[in-house]
Amino acid sequence: MSQFSPSYPDGLPIGDGWITTPHTEPVHFPYDGSVVATAPVGNVEHARMALSAATRVAADVAALPSRTRRDVLLGARDLLESVREDFERLLVLETGKPLRDCKVEVARTLVTLTAAAEEVARIHGETVPLDLLPSGDGMVGFWRRVPIGIVVGIAGFNYPLLLAAHKIAPSIAAGCPVVCKPAPHTPLATLWLVDLVRTAAARHGAPAAMVQLVTGDAAVGAVLVEDERIGAVSFTGSSAVGHAIARAAAPRKVLLELGSNAALIVAADADLDRAADAVVRGGYYASGQACISVQRVVVEEAVASEFLDLVVARVREVVVGDPRDEATDMSALIDERSTERVQDWVSRAVDAGAKVVAGGQTDGRLLRPTVVADVPGGLELWDEEVFGPVVAMRVVPDIDAAFAVANDSRYGLHASVWTRSLDTAFRAIDCLQVGGVIVNEVPGFRSDTMPYGGVKDSGIGREGPRFAIEELTVTKMAVIKVGV
Predict the structure, then answer these.
(1) Residues 190-212: what's their mean pLDDT?
(2) Is residue 102 among the annotated active site residues?
């Protein structure tokens, strides 16, 4: 018996309507494996159909008045607000994340839609002083921003609603049609969001095909990103897949929000109680399945022993269980394969001399929140993105060594430093090789209106409605000879 009955039509939202697919697949509740609902499975022909439909409406979408683009986004926000509790419950079932995390996801999605609507009024250009050279005398020059074209938005499974909103909302604000491809594990919330956006579009005279969705395998994704008609690809997911997309999409623009192994640095002068709370709060939210969750903890030697004791004590207080229960802090990973991979990485670290000081065991489908101390480099648990409820710790002699250890990574999305010293805080901001430095808070802090993105293998480009709109528009220069 399915646990969710969709209120949107059957099939895939392609073109002006919904197309029934010949195949469907069950979506499973990660906590117990039960079936949440069935989802349509698209194919390469559906992808081609969506791209053709987007091409047909691209000029119309680009020509939509600013007020219409704003009204569509605000209308979608209002529709989502009216069913927010239903979305929260669906996200719990689809992702297996605790209810408290799913409440935050819906709230952040509402903010993202609102912020994108507000940014519509701030898409502008500037005049250019062409007469800096004599050849420019009598010339008037100005530039403005125009839509980049069709956007392909591909999102990960961990935040299916929010990540889709960060693809859809800036695209609409910029005047671009968008074709979404959700993760196979979690298509339902994105399907519903697309339905709400298309409903809002219809109410304001905008074409439904400005937002479409196609599900399916890697072949479907390849058709979407390789098509010469697209203007940009916005992808959130693993580094390996992101790199492949960048190669396949070239020379079209790519925005890549990729992996990370976020570091949390604890200076000797830090508030250790608050820092320990941050490790637990930042390491296990969304069951550790967040690209900026705490993974590597780097502690100055002078406070390392005391700090480890504080963290271990707090880990014992983490409530692990049914994600539908509001008291639950952490639950199952997206599937059993992910759980087995994380366990394997922990085992390899132990074989190399690391010590499990908290957790490490499973309880049915649940992996207990885990802390592993003295993790050497050269292992997946330290070098790669664990994407699970495991925090790895290492002790260093001083803050300079801590900065060096944090930077010794192919990733660079977010990092945090805990200190009472303003000097240390600004040194961290200056020298940490990441897209965002968070002082005295978890590295997982993100306001959806700030520029968000990484360096190195953590990606290229920035999200946040204002910054994504800039990425999804191009400057067009106008030069006018006066007096002719």
Answers:
(1) 98
(2) no
